[in-house]
Amino acid sequence: MTSYQQMLFLIIATAFLFDGVEIVNMTFALPSIKAEFHLTLEQAGLLASITFLGMFIGASSAGILADRFGRRNVFQWSMVIWGFASLVCGMAPNLTVFALSRIVLGVGMAMEPIAGQALLSELLPAKQRGKYLSYFEGFAILGTIVSGIFAYFFLPLGGWRLLFIAEAVPAAFVFVVRRGVPESPRWLEKTGRLAQAESTMNMIENRVSGALGGAALPEPKKLEINETEHSKFALPDLFGPMFLKRTCMLWCLWFFALLGFFGFTTWLGELLMRKGYAITKSSLYLSFIWCGGIAGFLATGKMLETIGRKPTLVIALIGSTISLGLYANASDFTQLVILGLIMQFFIFSTWCTIYAYTPELYPTDGRATGVGFASAVGRIGALVAPFTGAIALSSFGQNGAYYLSAGAFFIAAVTTWALGEETKGRILEEISQQ
After folding, report:
1. pLDDT at 393
2. Which residues are CB-neighbours of 243 under 8 A, at least 6 positions away?
3. Cα–Cα distances in Å, from 257 out to 44, 67, 194, 251?
4. Residue 281: pLDDT above 60?
5. What is the pTM assigned to this prediction?
6. Is the distance from CB of 390 to CB of 266 less than 8 angstroms?
7. Is 276 left (phi over 0), alpha (psi -120 to 50) or beta?
8. Residue ranges per structural domain of the chain
9. CATH number of 3-211+235-431
């Protein structure tokens, strides 16, 4: 692992940071949008959910597109799509245009991390892969903090419209991506583009050697690959004998984890307003407690390479379950801050592990497809989360949304413990032979 791979990581992860800014944008903007368009609580929940319809479309198509046309191409275009759609959101003349642009924005948002996950997992060395993929999700945590800071300054200055317009600017980052990120040599080899794969590997090896001061690189180790590894991956293989257990585990994990996360995150601004905190002050508070997520992804990066993926994920999910229950019953601002930091530590530890773990469980020619469909199932959970959270709020008070999310995290923990397998320290080709 040299400065060259770290540079590639920073380029891809910074794009995901911008994605993280947009993901939680509605948490801050929703109360203002609800007021401007005179929406009921349930209608606001449906409006928040509609983004996840686009994310479902984007996630289910991005994997297939990335396995067909390359990780790099899908990664670049996803940023253009969500950047343009965010700009339209900020300029929407009515609710219909706003809702449609949110769907398009969701498509781009879901495509970006899927292509980024696949690309990073195929460019990083096995012993560092888990840690850096965990840090990849950590950049989304930084994005949530940046989003809160944006809301704190932009909401009083120009309302929710300025918030969306400001967040469209990072789409220009696509030009940096074009110059700095190569296509995955693994993907090029799998699609028969051997000369391009060899050329890309030579370029990477030269850059790595240069980062090591011109030192000669060690000879690659010979790896015995089963003939089945070279058979072309097809969509039905997700449910074949080799991958059925992994697919079932990942689909349940993604569905309940996203249901749990957005079941309460969408309504955090609303919940804090009910506790008597102004929305602009609440956005700054949320940015502060999300700092607990920074500690979460730093700790997770270490745990993934020591105790492994599966135990780290189960610990994070159980911790999310317990801390959510405690946070729901916070009685004063001090408890709200302390328990909020603990809650975000475990929740973002969960997401760091999921993003590191998922792409390891499928072979190169089906990796983005497997990740994409797992993420798409998760978007179904995210799609229903704001509306079910609104129902829980109306029926059981503000604690209902927290308990709903805590239960979802617990189901995800049990599923992972029962069906998950360990991938720590294993190269991708070895994992896909099991």
Report:
1. 74
2. 237, 361, 362, 370
3. 22, 25, 39, 10
4. no
5. 0.75
6. no
7. left
8. 3-211+235-431
9. 1.20.1250.20
